[in-house]
Specification:
Blueprint: E1 2-3, H1 13-21, E2 26-27, E3 38-41, E4 50-57, E5 60-66, E6 75-81, E7 86-90, E8 93-96, E9 98-103, H2 105-115, E10 127-132, E11 136-143, E12 146-151
Antiparallel strand pairs: 1-2, 3-4, 4-5, 5-6, 7-8, 9-10, 10-11, 11-12
Length: 154
């Protein structure tokens, strides 16, 4: 199932408007009572509230990161075809096995220590865990003006 941005509780009106302008729908993980794939956190630096949404347009979902909650110039990362993540079909659409969530320093360090990967930058704010639900994930971490792909769950 995919929701319209307006159906996501708590999403600021300016972001609803921008996501709708882009033609986004928000893929939903297997049915739950809670909406998924719109998150907030400090993705650029400590103390700054940013928003991220998994935006699906024409069968491709991209993580859009809205700095300081502004609709202007969002970062666009990790575009992937929705069909890769289709979990099951129902009459009202499909459920997705792609999910995003906010992760903190301890999650990032623990998974790096377990699975390795490139040398970690200084971890002083949150990252975005981009999950293939129930299987694996990668963490997107913004540092020094660019996104790093770090170890998530395996």
């Amino acid at each position: 199932m995919q929701l319209s941005p307006a159906a996501i509780p708590g999403l600021p009106a300016n972001l609803v408007k921008e996501l709708e302008r882009r033609g986004c729908t928000i893929p939903q993980e297997a049915p739950t009572k809670k909406s998924s794939n719109v998150i907030k956190g400090a993705f650029a630096k400590p103390g700054q509230t940013d928003w991220a949404a998994l935006c699906s347009v024409n069968g491709v979902s991209t993580i859009l990161v809205f700095w300081k909650g502004s609709e202007k110039n969002p970062a666009a990362i990790a575009p992937m075809e929705d069909r890769i993540y289709i979990q099951g079909f129902k009459k009202d659409g499909f459920s997705s096995s792609r999910g995003i969530r906010t992760v903190a320093k301890d999650f990032i360090r623990r998974h790096h220590d377990t699975y390795g990967g490139p040398r970690l930058p200084r971890i002083d704010h949150q990252g975005i865990d981009d999950m293939f639900v129930g299987k694996a994930s990668v963490v997107w971490y913004y540092y020094n003006g660019q996104w790093s792909k770090l170890a998530g769950k395996d």
